[in-house]
Every structure is written in C-alpha cells, then in structure tokens.
Design goal:
Layout: H1 18-24, H2 34-44, H3 57-62, H4 68-82, H5 86-119, E1 124-129, E2 132-137, E3 146-149, E4 158-170, H6 172-175, E5 181-182, E6 200-201, E7 206-218, H7 224-233, H8 241-271, H9 276-290, H10 294-311, H11 322-327
Antiparallel strand pairs: 1-2, 1-3, 3-7, 4-5, 4-6, 4-7
Helix pairs in contact: 4-5, 4-9, 5-10, 8-9
Length: 334
C-alpha cells in the first residue's frame, strides 16, 4: 500500500531488496500504467526542486541605491533642483546613475550565467510505462516509475537499482568522490553512509558507464539533492566586512557632513549676515563637494574587475561583494 505522503516515507530503500522496493511502491518491472503515473503525479507533485524567490530586474536595480552616501547625494540633488541649479543636479544624478548601472549590469551577467547552467541539465528521462519504453520530461517522474539508465545520462531521481550491468556513476556532487562508483543491486546495511549505498543511483549524478534499471523511490525535494538544496536555503545571509565598513563609514561621514553644514549655516547667517538662501546654497555646495561620490562607483568597479577575473578562471560570482569573501579565504575543507 502506498505511503500517505512522499515525505513520510523514510524507509532505507538501500537496505531493501529490489522486489521489496517494487512492492513498497506498488510497482513491477513493467512500470506503471500511464493512468497510475498521472494519478501519482497529481498526488506527489512534479519532480523538481523548489525555486528560490529571485529579485526582479527593478528590485535588483533599486538595490544599487541602498547606500547612505547615495541617499545623501540624492538628497543634495533634490535640494539643488529645488533651488534651480540644474547643472549641479545633473552632475550629481549622473554619478548616482553610473554607480547603479555598473552594479546592475554585473549582477545581471551573473544571473544569466547561472540560468544558462540550469538550462544545461537534461530535462528528459527514459521510463517504462505499461511495459513500453518512452521518453518523458524528468519533472513528470513519480515514485514507482521504472527508469532506464545509459552512459551519459543524468540520473533524474533517486533510484533503487533493480538491474545493473557494469554500471558506474559519478557521485562527486554528493560525496566529493572524484572516481566513478561501481554499482550493484545487492542491499546494504540500513546505516550505510551515502557513498556506500552501492544499490542506489541519486538524482543529479551522472552515469559514467554501463546500463541499469531502477525504481524511483524519491523525487523533487525529497531526494538527497533536494535535501542539500533545503539546507542551502536555510543559510543566513551575512553582510561582508567590506560592506559593513562601508556602511559604517557612510553613516559616520554623513553625520559629520550634516554637522559641519549646520555649523557653517549658523555662522554664515548669525555671524556674517548672509541671507538664509545664499547661506543654504553655500552649505549645499560644501556638502556635495565633501561627499566622496566616486567611492561607491570605485568600489563597484573594483569588485566588478574581480568578478571578471574570476569568470576567466571558470568561477561564476553571483553577487559582487562575494569576491571580497573569496579573497579572505585561507583554508578550504573538503
């Protein structure tokens, strides 16, 4: 009898015999009928990992303005525009826009590179349905399906092997093992480590040689690859030391500029007899001149150069500040 839900079926399929695995999912070596497969697809859902929510183009562009110094520059631009100084306003806004465009373009390139990598994953799987071999989209696989593996195939779901002929699978993405693992159909101990489960073929791994037939025992987020994805989604996002220093510097510098501007305004009006409007324009000029408006742009360009150099070494950097953290790495544990 089928388990109530996919997630509640935690049986160690590597410790079961091939026949027990087939019986556990009410299947046999001829495969599921198309009607049964459709029913299970509606019950268990598609065989795909949940997509993490991503920022849209507008959100990614607006994020480039999330900086205290940029806020101060925008405020200065608003004030100069209100006072009718169009040239000053245009120069300030041009600097702000250039900084945002550089950051946006670099993050967009990284997003496109990641999307192209996802597109390289084969979306097809060879299965037996009603004792007939057919090719179906990998996301339509369901528990109990009989999957056929050939050299070069990417394993589309977690499989309990029921037949194998000289099968070896590259499991580096799960175990880090650089050599392809030879597979067999014999059951192993229930507490066997992931790399020792020789009768299993795991989603996302690559068939290096041989052929095999297996019954699907886990799909989507319930696979070993899906569990890794769930762990990655639970990782907290931390601000890098460089960004923390920049934010702290921006706040302190902004407070210092405002304090000096207020002092100059008071002295100009009270001690020198300037008109408030003239004194205010002088204060705005001092504030705009003191703000290192090129600093965010220089930092962005510097990080962008690092991203380009890493790309030349086949490393894709999604977020610009990640370059800094890579530069701080001293020990890599594998």
């Amino acid at each position: 009898m089928l388990p109530l839900t996919h997630e509640t079926d935690t049986r160690p399929w590597h410790a079961a015999t091939p026949q027990e695995a087939l019986e556990g999912w009410n299947s046999d070596s001829r495969g599921l009928s198309p009607e049964e497969a459709a029913g299970r697809l509606a019950r268990y859902g598609p065989n795909q990992l949940p997509q993490a929510p991503s920022r849209g183009p507008l959100a990614r562009f607006l994020a480039q303005f999330n900086n205290v110094l940029i806020y101060l520059l925008i405020g200065s631009a608003a004030v100069t525009a209100e006072l009718g100084h169009g040239t000053d306003t245009a120069v300030i806004l041009l600097v702000v826009a250039a900084n945002a465009v550089v950051g946006y373009v670099q993050e967009g390139r990284a997003e496109n590179a990641l999307a192209s990598l996802r597109a390289m994953i084969s979306p097809q799987a060879s299965v037996l349905r009603g004792d007939r071999r057919m090719t179906v989209p990998a996301e339509e696989l369901v528990p109990g399906d009989i999957v056929l593996l050939d050299p070069g195939d990417k394993v589309p779901a977690d499989l309990r092997l029921i037949r194998s002929r000289s099968l070896s699978v590259d499991e580096a993405i799960l175990t880090g093992e650089s050599v392809a693992v030879e597979k067999a159909v014999g059951a192993v101990a229930a507490d066997a480590a992931l790399g020792d489960r020789r009768c299993m073929a795991f989603s996302g791994t690559m068939v290096a040689a041989g052929q095999a037939t297996g019954v699907v025992v886990a799909t989507g987020s319930v696979t070993e690859l899906g569990r890794i994805g769930a762990l990655l989604q639970g990782v907290d996002t931390l601000t890098t030391p460089l960004l923390r220093q920049m934010n702290r510097f921006g706040r302190q510098f902004a407070m210092a500029i405002l304090a000096v501007a207020a002092l100059v305004f008071a002295l100009a009006v009270l001690a020198r007899g300037y008109a408030p409007a003239d004194a205010f324009m002088a204060v705005v000029g001092i504030a705009v001149a003191a703000i290192p408006e090129g600093l965010p742009a220089v930092m962005t360009i510097t990080l962008a150069v690092g991203v380009q150099r890493m790309a030349g070494r086949q490393a894709i950097i999604r977020r610009l500040p990640a370059v800094e953290t890579l530069g701080s790495v001293s020990v890599i544990c594998t």
